[in-house]
């Protein structure tokens, strides 16, 4: 026998098919939206992290207060350099024991680490000038002042550079753990006379 399909049954079948297609489209859209939201969240966190790192590289810098040379009166040369530093405006906490310093002088470039973090070789050390919380090597307050000390022609470090004669120029680059770099250039006066210390 022939089976006749009425208009109402045909419309019902078409409606169910449309509903199935609609549900499938909603599911696909929901999955795609979930992927997009997860991706956007991941990219946002990455961009924030990158932004923070970039900000630290710019802001977590040191600022020179004064640079002083100790004069060897017997040879009229500078045999030690002391650079007093503080936080640059807007800088966060800076631990000098994690810093590295490039000394660029007449004898070439040397890279130094803090004397508490390396063994042997020429190193720099720090002394507290003004420290609000006795944090040893950490600058964490705008009032903190530390002196970075360089001994030249050191008997304990054979790779240390020679003493600086009159008129000599040196550049030091202090690199903090955050990746910020502070450049300080100084020149030995043309005449040291009989002074025991000079501002460079």
Automatic annotation (TrEMBL):
Record keywords, A-Z: Archaeal flagellum, Membrane, Transmembrane, Transmembrane helix
Annotated membrane-spanning segments are: 12-37
- InterPro entries according to UniProt: Flagellin/pilin_N_arc, Flagellin_arc-type
Where does it mainly reside?
other
Q: List, alphabetically, the GO terms of the cellular component aspect.
A: archaeal-type flagellum
- Subcellular localization: Archaeal flagellum
Q: Which Pfam families match?
A: Flagellin_arch-type (PF01917)
Give the family this protein belongs to, as stated in its UniProt record: Belongs to the archaeal flagellin family.
Q: What does this protein do?
A: Flagellin is the subunit protein which polymerizes to form the filaments of archaeal flagella.
Q: What is this protein called?
A: Flagellin
Organism, as annotated = Halobaculum lipolyticum
Its ancestry begins with:
Archaea, Methanobacteriati, Methanobacteriota, Stenosarchaea group, Halobacteria
